[in-house]
Amino acid sequence: xxxxxxxxxxxxxxxxxxxxxxxxxxxxxxxxxxxxxxxxxxxxxxxxxxxxxxxxxxxxxxxxxxxxxxxxxxxxxxxxxxxxxxxxxxxxxxxxxxxxxxxxxxxxxxxxxxxxxxxxxxxxxxxxxxxxxxxxxxxxxxxxxxxxxxxxxxxxxxxxxxxxxxxxxxxxxxxxxxxxxxxxxxxxxxxxxxxxxxxxxxxxxxxxxxxxxxxxxxxxxxxxxxxxxxxxxxxxxxxxxxxxxxxxxxxxxxxxxxxxxxxxxxxxxxxxxxxxxxxxxxxxxxxxxxxxxxxxxxxxxxxxxxxxxxxxxxxxxxxxxxxxxxxxxxxxxxxxxxxxxxxxxxxxxxxxxxxxxxxxxxxxxxxxxxxxxxxxxxxxxxxxxxxxxxxxxxxxxxxxxxxxxxxxxxxxxxxxxxxxxxxxxxxxxxxxxxxxxxxxxxxxxxxxxxxxxxxxxxxxxxxxxxxxxxxxxxxxxxxxxxxxxxxxxxxxxxxxxxxxxxxxxxxxxxxxxxxxxxxxxxxxxxxxxxxxxxxxxxxxxxxxxxxxxxxxxxxxxxxxxxxxxxxxxxxxxxxxxxxxxxxxxxxxxxxxxxxxxxxxxxxxxxxxxxxxxxxxxxxxxxxxxxxxxxxxxxxxxxxxxxxxxxxxxxxxxxxxxxxxxxxxxxxxxxxxxxxxxxxxxxxxxxxxxxxxxxxxxxxxxxxxxxxxxxxxx
Amino acid sequence: xxxxxxxxxxxxxxxxxxxxxxxxxxxxxxxxxxxxxxxxxxxxxxxxxxxxxxxxxxxxxxxxxxxxxxxxxxxxxxxxxxxxxxxxxxxxxxxxxxxxxxxxxxxxxxxxxxxxxxxxxxxxxxxxxxxxxxxxxxxxxxxxxxxxxxxxxxxxxxxxxxxxxxxxxxxxxxxxxxxx
Lengths: 713, 180
Description:
The structure holds two protein chains of two kinds.
Chain A: H1 4-14, E1 17-21, E2 44-48, E3 54-58, H2 67-79, E4 86-90, H3 107-134, E5 141-144, E6 147-150, E7 153-159, H4 160-164, E8 168-172, H5 197-202, E9 217-221, E10 230-235, H6 237-240, E11 246-250, E12 253-258, H7 261-269, E13 272-276, H8 287-293, E14 298-304, H9 307-313, E15 316-324, E16 336-342, E17 345-350, H10 355-366, E18 373-376, H11 391-403, E19 407-410, H12 413-418, E20 426-434, E21 440-448, E22 463-469, H13 495-512, H14 517-524, H15 528-541, E23 554-561, E24 564-574, E25 581-591, H16 598-618, E26 623-624, E27 627-628, E28 647-651, H17 670-682, E29 688-689, H18 693-705
Parallel strand pairs in A: 1-8, 3-4, 9-19, 15-29, 17-18, 21-22, 25-28
Antiparallel strand pairs in A: 1-2, 2-3, 5-6, 6-7, 9-12, 10-13, 11-12, 14-22, 15-20, 16-17, 16-19, 20-21, 23-24, 24-25, 26-27
Chain B: E1 24-31, E2 34-41, H1 46-53, E3 72-75, E4 78-81, E5 94-96, H2 109-116, H3 126-139, H4 145-152, H5 162-172
Parallel strand pairs in B: 1-5
Antiparallel strand pairs in B: 1-2, 3-4, 3-5
Helix pairs in contact in B: 2-5, 4-5
């Protein structure tokens, strides 16, 4: 805190107590984004009220991944309070410390330390206060369960609420705050009932489209039939003649609004647009040649040894090309926002993973200063990266400004597919070599459009090169240069494709070396954590070593993602006559360091692998140029009950390591483990995801015809 | 995947074939145990009447075409897709939404089983899951795991809570007091 006036204003707002404020310059949070200049505002991590209740403020939002509960656990652990006395305020830009967004499996591993430090700082402050009040040296005091008590004398204690009463103390988080040791944990490492459980089973949980304001209007926005189409003509007369319909017509935003969303839908249907559409040439099959030939920036991600020489000296070379189509995020909650813009102030409730960047986008669109825009983030009905883009919040704010009433924008399912920022279609070409002893001597990969994450193999190879084409990092690709529509981060962006390619190729090499695929990986693994994780998975599965293809339908895949080591073993059954792949069993071991909430961590593994069944087996966007042909869940098939299977998640104990990422790592192994399982079942490999029945049958036919591996799929 | 009667044009509320002239109708029905009397636009669907007129936002819009099941409610104990249901179709009937499951603040056995098994993540599909499961247990109080899977097949979950949902439904079927 820099000024007394601001401190008074702060306490006027919160009504006294003890507050722990952020200190971006000294805390660990700036590591999230070194380029950002952190504002020194007065948003707090936590406030201890005079009633002893603790309010925690976090820019990280709850989209199902359980961070409302796990953040509360971390804070309560350090502070020494019961979980039940913690109230969470998430994703409110007016009240929470600045945050870049909830993605990248960063909440626990990057924001967690800051939150825990705030808790530890508050505990130290409470102990110092209690020391004065009780006349006992601080080192003889214990802070637990909302009380400071004298060690060895249970009768002498004082509650946090009592200490907070009359206090107006604001402390900035000190980097030196001492965190509790893992051996002291009573809340971290447990799985209490989720804080959002009751709200979610009673219907009380509010999502953005559930917020109601007096005089609000529901907007329906005119969308082009395909990306790139231009509005040539528009007849609005029929819509405008409808009772109570408001029309907003701006160069890049046409909407009809009504107090009844169903009437707004009819009004939209009565708009008569004429569109000039560009020609459409790309489709889900031709996209791959386009990706490898389109002019695009290059980047070398890995260059070790002399891959050129290794290519000529290798005993055996294996060349493969892997492909994957566009994949949609398809959260069950479509993007929604309610904006109330009045008197130069905007308040926007939005389903967004990035409330602070959304605030800045809204401010820019409205030409408001950012401090005049407040974004509030209710529960999200799934995000998966897709709600990092918050266009609906900007649209709602612009429309509210235009009509002078609160406006809700909620995308239809068709709009959700059309406007998605898809996981990009991608191609990976790999040339790998084996030496005479069955060791990998060469890894030479070119990655088109997938990006860098997961591109570096976790195995020891003397000569290795990885070249990235089309993308040097997420978001730098301009839509239109390579893709017919927007692409963006999708749960572990890039890693799903890259791990699919790496781990499929590993199985090809293992089979050629006639070595069990787990044994083959063990021989090449440099990372001790990954080694132990793979051992754990093999033991949990009951793995019996055999060189592939074994006919058993077993597939393994390893991945190191977001600091976490994952090893997955999948068992499938493949119907040879239909080509249908049925997952039968999945075992996944994960070393994610200290586990804050074991059940929550397992649910992320289960959820990730279940979601991963989609991109592995059924999900692929249908399109014709910029026209998105999938409009609903009938043609775009996400996993259903009958297609899922039991997932046995095993957490490798590692309390030596701070908590690592949990939301994304497991899904990166889904495509590869299933592809390897299919290859193990059939003796034929599918090189393109998803592994549709037709592609499985084609792989079988190609194997029977004896085609070289690289041409299959 | 078998789907019936899905309007592939999928124009949001599927109203394009409906009369464009507006008429007001009267309707009486029971909603979560309370008698309701409404005047309404004859084009109204049950989903949007619940969400906007009644403020019962626990019933969700997910696809607008009856595919995802997020809008599932019970009509006289049968699971129904409220996004496809004209409001006029529930005249004289009894409608139960997720808000009507807990009585006096006490969770019903299915809700409690969902909590106990962590049978949700984002929670957006949960109301529809709960009401579909209710209809199942009403018709088949002791379903096998396969029967649960078959019944829940047309309720979509993107977070991957499927197996926990099956666990919760199976567990609830063993608990006393599942409402029908």
